[in-house]
Amino acid sequence: MYKCSLDRMxxxxxxxAKYGDAGHGGITRYSLSPEAHQARDEFxxxxxxxxxxxxxxxxxxxxxxxxxxxxxAKRIVMASHVDSVRNxxxxxxxLGVMVGMEVLETVAAENIPHKHPLTAMIWxxxxxxxxxxxxxxxxxxxxxxxxxAIGKKFKLENMLASKSVLDKTTTxxxxxxxxxxxxxxxxxxxxxxxxxxFELHIEQGPILEDAGNEIGVVTCVLGMFNYRIRFYGQxxxxxTTPMHKRQDALFAAAxxxxxxxxxxxxxxxxxxxxxxxxxxxxxxxxxxxxxLIDFSIDVRHEDPAVRQQVLDIVKSLDGKVIxxxxxEVELAWQRDTVYFDKELVExxxxxxxxxGFKNQYIPSGAGHDAQFASYMMPTTMIFVPSKDGHxxxxxxxxxPEECTAGASVMLNAVLxxxxx
Amino acid sequence: MYKCSLDRMxxxxxxxAKYGDAGHGGITRYSLSPEAHQARDEFxxxxxxxxxxxxxxxxxxxxxxxxxxxxxAKRIVMASHVDSVRNxxxxxxxLGVMVGMEVLETVAAENIPHKHPLTAMIWxxxxxxxxxxxxxxxxxxxxxxxxxAIGKKFKLENMLASKSVLDKTTTxxxxxxxxxxxxxxxxxxxxxxxxxxFELHIEQGPILEDAGNEIGVVTCVLGMFNYRIRFYGQxxxxxTTPMHKRQDALFAAAxxxxxxxxxxxxxxxxxxxxxxxxxxxxxxxxxxxxxLIDFSIDVRHEDPAVRQQVLDIVKSLDGKVIxxxxxEVELAWQRDTVYFDKELVExxxxxxxxxGFKNQYIPSGAGHDAQFASYMMPTTMIFVPSKDGHxxxxxxxxxPEECTAGASVMLNAVLxxxxx
Lengths: 420, 420
Fold this sequence. Notes:
Chain A is globular and about 80 Å long. By secondary structure, chain A is an alpha+beta fold. Chain A has helices at residues 6-16, 34-49, 94-109, 136-141, 148-153, 156-160, 172-178, 207-211, 249-265, 304-315, 342-355, 369-373, 400-419, and strands spanning 53-56, 62-66, 75-81, 118-123, 194-202, 215-221, 224-232, 273-275, 279-282, 292-300, 321-322, 325-335, 338-339, 359-364, 379-384. Chains A and B meet through helix 9, strand 8 and strand 10 of A and helix 9, strand 8 and strand 10 of B.
């Protein structure tokens, strides 16, 4: 078994944490921002130092490749992203890039024989924090392989027109054109030249930590659905409208929300997750009774039958009248569970076992570029623990030892794939 | 008993409804906008036609005065506003101005003898829709008489600096300087030159309509308090955080809101009104558990003991932990019940009775300029019915007959005050 270097991994973690440092333990590193370009420059510098070839494609996705010994063998790619959410942490995305680099550095330093070219890759704009949506580049690159409804959302022309959420003017296309890393479409990840993709990521939840495990062997990305639930009331004056005549959409929505929690909890599925993260109120004035509340519900579970049970509860609100307000339920989007390549999953499992790392099978509740890539080629993921389960925030933390363990599992799983 | 003219009243209603017509039955007529200036021009035209003297003060409040027969007698003023909320109706504010005009027109047309000068007045920026806060000019003009906490909020320099909610740049001071109706500070409403103020307004609630009454004899403006209630959670990932570990601030707030309704309803006070009109969510992303919900509660009742009972329920949420989220309760502002001048209230009551209009005593749940004026001089209000209780919206409606009935009550009540 080969092992990666704790010192080299720690040095990378400390170095990349500077690019976009927000001054209180985390980073803000929007895709294609100056800070993200600093991180890309560092990637180039370190990859050139070990003799890797650097390529970029038309979406500024970056590829650093060490050649293999077998002529014409397809590449194996380890890919993640360097961009972050606003006031995010030092691990989401960038850890997967650093692990790809670490694997190549270990292969180069120890002269590890391999037939296939090995590539460390950066996906552009995975978070979609500045230019929505998330997983933008993998959505474009894998577009021809995606289910139709998803593929339609990620058409290149729509993505290039996506506007900055900050200035509402600059488009993703503008940012790409201004980037020194915009390259050639022919360099895109593709099924002819690549045989497999691996992505290491922090778990972003507390499951590995709570179980005392060091490695998550990811089996799938959970199927999910996202609905909007609305209640329509009547906006009357706060001081002049008797309570018994009110059509208060916020009170109706609060009752509906409590009702849904009660009903969904009755299903007795502790592994089910559901979230009402967004709520919009109209007119949202303290002296006016709200006439519209619109909130989101995001529901995730591997089993479509369980998702259907939840959907039945959500849909029971459609047309329901609560506090004289009418409910309405509308599908925003949904996706089936995406299963990773069984053989690659087992390569990860075997590597973790052989290295002696405590591990478990785990689904991914979050979406990742790997999920789109899996429609194009055999793909899988590796998780490492997130302290207290936090992510997309500054307290996000994974120990250097856990990061290095993840890199070692990646290295050995890639070498198993290389031997196929 | 004198009576006002249904024809003349109807003509004014139809004419003023054009200024700011939003094309679907209502108006948008922000204070000092071109549309509001059209309404002011119409006011000037009609008041000059009956020989009234026009004055304006430094806040562009407008005064049209017919002289009385007694030299040096103080003026009696009938005041309201011409500005509206966005997509408001054709009655809120403007009806009070039209009634003031109608009273003067009736006095002029019928040569009704009166000792005191009679003034129809327009308050600038009552709604505060474009330049917050509401009741801005009466807050400035009556400032020296207001309770300290309220007076502090309405200091002239702060009001002049209030920025447009639309362009976030133009100040109320800029708008005033651009108005042809900005005049001299010496013309402001004051206690030396004015003996009483009357304000007619639509009820903005369904009480008169439900009781089959044509006139509301307003006794007071309800005391109220406004609090912010916050719940602090933890923003974790929607897909990766098990339900039993979540600190979901929205779920906590929804439970708190339902709890408050239950507890307040137990007080058994059908005349009590309370409203949670505004809700803010952070980060408000459908894939993230909310870590902060901040909502308003506005509570109104005449009796301070009843308000205190509600406040005890609201305050019980301070420090309370619901769904692992901590509650916090903070006072935004409060005011005591403001009672109108007993003698003027009885003049209104007697006039309505003598004219044969079905009437009742009624508190005002909404705030009005009259409430600030009442700290400076004897003041009272007259209500007319609001169809279905709607206001601050396009379906706002009061029949021409009801409007004219209100004007006739105003005329006779003013004449009773004139005879004092």
